[in-house]
Write a structure and sequence with these properties.
mainly alpha; binds ligand 0FV; binds manganese (II) ion
Length: 580
Amino acid sequence: MLQRLAVSPCIPVHRNPTRALSYRPPVCVQAPSHLVKRRSANFKPTIWHDKFIQSISSEDKHEGRNKENVTKLKEEVRQMVLKEELLRDKLELVDALQQLGVAYHFKEEIKSVLKGIHVSMIQMSFSTVGDLHVISLLFRHLRLHGFSVSEDIFKSYMDNKGDFRIELSLDIQGLLSLYEASYLAKEGEEILEKARQFTTKYLKSYIENSNRTCNNSREKEHVSHALELPLHWRMERLQTRWFIDEYKVEMKMRPVLLELAVLDFNLIQTSFKKELKDLSSWWTDLRLYEKLPFIRDRLVENHLWSVAFTFEPKHASLRKVQTKAICLIALFDDIYDVYGSLDELEAFTDAIEQWDLSAMEKLPEYMQICFMVLFNTLNDSAYDILRQKGLNIIPYLRRAWTELCKSWLAEARWYHGGYSPTLQEYLENAWVSIASIIVFSNAYCMDDDVTAKDLEQFSFSYPEIARLSSMTFRLYDDLGTSKAEIERGDVDKSIQCYMREKKVTESVARQDIRDMILKYWKLMNSQNVGSSVFQEYFRNVALNISRMAQCIYQHGDGYAEPGQETKDRVMSVLLEPIEI
Ligand code: 0FV
Ligand code: MN
Ligand code: MN
Ligand code: MN
Ligand code: MN
């Protein structure tokens, strides 16, 4: 199978301490930069200019009052969670909190409610029978929160041939909840696989029938939304935004919940805007785009990625680090894929590995700029952690950037050498070259709750869930971007490797790659990552990377060629408050 990367815990910054003494002026081995024949991908400029970003109001004159209100409402909701008695009510409340995007305020309470339910289920040997909707909600939330629960819980809804009983197809709410639960399946779980197929089939026919009869339009809207994408795969802030609007007209709507959700959404969004303004000043002041106009200039879209990984207020400084890193990832990726010559890329990869300003001198000027901006940005983020927590995380970040550059170099060598990798060769490299190891390393090393022991663990290998999530990101990316990449000249991506190896058409390959993605999701669900606060946080980052990748590439390449879809997402998550 796919190998994990071996890692030395502490890479010495200077391999040879006497180097400074034996310093000699560098010899430039490459062709002079102006003689290199360069390609360009003709990426469009950004639609979000700094002038516009700075003109956005990030001051809310009611911010103080709204914060006070949130504190008060939170207390009311906390009481609600603790007071609820019936199983159905408890679960529906937990589910609403989750979908309204405020569950993070009540982590402890929700855990304790679910723990109570779980304990009583153990006492009854999981022989719970009841409403399909309630049991499905129960199953999904137990799994999401790391409680062990077997798929056998659904056996009582099956006939003696092992199929779901046909009369269930009339229970739309039950079908919908079972459908959502089925996406929490682990590798090899057949009941849940049957559940997914059964519910998908009958929900689709419900939509077809109701197109003719036009009954209950809200239910229909919910079913279509779910069929488009299950909850487990959705980018959280976008789902929250959608659900808040739905919740407004829900029969069981509780005004306290709604008010909390809207205020909280807007407060968090105010923080996103402040972050964005700082980031836009940083990016504009670097003036990289003037010097390197061939790159993807996508600051705002990059911040949307960071928000997707960790939206909670306490992660504001991590988000800024992530957005800066993604700007540099996109810049470097374009150099390795399109702009740089192979000689230059070899030299650049060496320089990154050495992590030393003198290594930079051998590089052409445009690469010196790239090297230095990474050197400064990374050291800057690491400095904050060293100052605040006394932890030196530079070795971990260097490791990730070096591995990333090496994986990009491998692809460049393949491309320039006219080599077509096997699918396995490709994937072993491509889960790294998609660059999420940088996101993971930042998220891991810079979290408040990370312990020295966690860091030691990290120095041996990346957690398996990081590799699985990166794999989904890679495959989603290839589905959305490989057409343009191959046209402009690039190494074969997963789709082309698959077509060649299995001798199938592109549309078969695409479908099979979608099936592979589903398999990776199941493997992610199978990971037993532990239940500490830190472990749960890290698992969510992994799930969120897959969710965001699915979202950005849902309608093609929403990143390099952001159209109306991406613009709408930026507006509704980052810029437009919900009206009160
Ligand atoms: C990948 O671009 C991509 F979406 C980037 C670089 C931005 C977001 C990155 C992270 C959140 C880590 P592209 O399709 O050019 O990547 P490949 O690897 O296919 O060249
Ligand atoms: Mn690329
Ligand atoms: Mn690339
Ligand atoms: Mn944390
Ligand atoms: Mn790509």
